[in-house]
Structure formats: structure tokens, C-alpha cells
Specification:
- The protein is mostly helical.
- The chain contains 2 helices and 2 strands; from the N terminus they run ααββ.
- Helix content is 47%, strand content 10%.
- The protein has a two-stranded parallel sheet.
- α1 packs across α2.
- The longest helix has 15 residues.
């Protein structure tokens, strides 16, 4: 798997935080999933508002 750069993740995190009004740690987690093109598996329902990535709630 080819990883994403820190700069790419940072840029995505900034855009997600502005668009969805989420906390910085959540934006970094979501940005990492988006940059790596992977679903985000979580039990945190706050991520449901992020429509830019695939969310799997457990």
C-alpha cells in the first residue's frame, strides 16, 4: 500500500474541519482514512456527519 504524505493529510484535515465543523483530532482521523482511501471504522457517531468518506459504525 502506498501511504499518504503528512502534508496531504494535513490539507485534507483542514478542509474537512472547515466543511463539517469537527474537532481537530477527528478531522485528522477522517483525513487519514480519506487519503488512504479506506473506510473509517468507529463507534463514534459524530463521524456520521462526514460524508466525504465511508464510515462503518460498530
Amino acid at each position: 500500500m502506498i501511504g499518504a504524505s503528512f502534508v496531504e493529510i494535513k490539507d485534507i484535515a483542514i478542509r474537512l474541519r472547515q466543511k463539517h465543523i469537527i474537532k481537530t483530532p477527528d478531522s485528522i482521523i477522517a483525513a487519514t482514512a480519506k487519503a488512504l482511501q479506506l473506510p473509517l471504522v468507529t463507534s463514534d457517531k459524530d463521524f456520521k456527519k462526514i460524508t466525504d468518506i465511508s464510515i462503518i459504525l460498530i
